[in-house]
Amino acid sequence: MTLGTRAAGNPPASGAGDVETREDGFAAALDRRPGRHWLLHSDGRRSPLPVGRWHGPPEPASRAVVARCAGPTLDVGCGPGRLTLALTRAGHTAVGVDVSAQAVRLTRRRGAVAVHRDVFAPLPGEGRWAHVLLMDGNIGIGGDPVALLGRCRELVRPGGTVIVELEPPGLGLWRGRSSLASLSADGEMRRGGAFNWARLDAVAVHEVAAVAGMVVPEVFRAGRRWFGELAVPVRPWAPSGRAGR
Ligand SMILES: C[S@@+](CC[C@H](N)C(=O)[O-])C[C@H]1O[C@@H](n2cnc3c(N)ncnc32)[C@H](O)[C@@H]1O
Q1: Residues in the chain, pLDDT under 50
Q2: Is residue 14 assigned to a domain?
Q3: Looking at residue 116, which CATH number applies to its domain?
Q4: Considering the entire predicted model, what is its pTM?
Q5: What range(s) does the Methyltransferase domain occupy (predicted)?
Q6: Among 21, 37, 99, 165, which residue has the most ligand 1 atoms within 8 Å of its CB, making it the best to mutate?
Q7: Does 141 contact ligand 1 (Cβ within 6 A)?
Q8: Å from CA of 243 to ligand 1 middle
Q9: Cα torsion at 14, 167, 90, 160 (round to 10°)?
């Protein structure tokens, strides 16, 4: 497993630092062009993208995630914003963040709040969020999960958590280049530009989190989907008598 090397807050080392590339990356899926969509990975695998789900109402698994949120929540890579909206409806302050202008438009059209921003750029409420969400494979953003989790650490408040959707056990950590492939309703296959991406499973998350200075108190399942709730460990208690020595 190759873990990340980039310091949190700095742009990714190559390619993915280019916001335009990343914005284009999911465009066909965010535009809801009819057809089927996959992410093609440079290891030869492909992941079908549940684009209908992104554009639809919150599904049972997302309700399980929302139920864990107990305060202001940042939905990173919000896409069309179904989670941001579900959080808002549950009475939380919720803000979606996405590099895609189309994603932000769709989220706002649903009645939720979203900012058009790269997660690695300055964001509102840094250090004050109770939860940060990385759903639907978004741990892949930037292609370096250690750097992304490091960035999320900067965003959450003490005691806050980062809720991450994971791959089922078996894959480990994969980092590489991916691109969106779309099969249109009239049978034409189109492929977008490649960008840095990563996939992380429910076992490897422990090591990746540790390198990012976090722990994984819980891995949980909702239906067939896997999630981890990550936290910054509380500092070990030091006897007060040692203070000032
Ligand atoms: C796999 S899709 C997730 C869809 C979304 N969670 C939903 O429910 O519709 C990844 C999303 O992350 C966004 N994204 C990619 N890189 C990003 C970045 N650096 N900062 C913020 N959003 C980013 C993409 O534009 C896309 O909307």
Answers
A1: 4-22, 243-245
A2: no
A3: 3.40.50.150
A4: 0.88
A5: 74-160
A6: 99
A7: yes
A8: 45
A9: -60
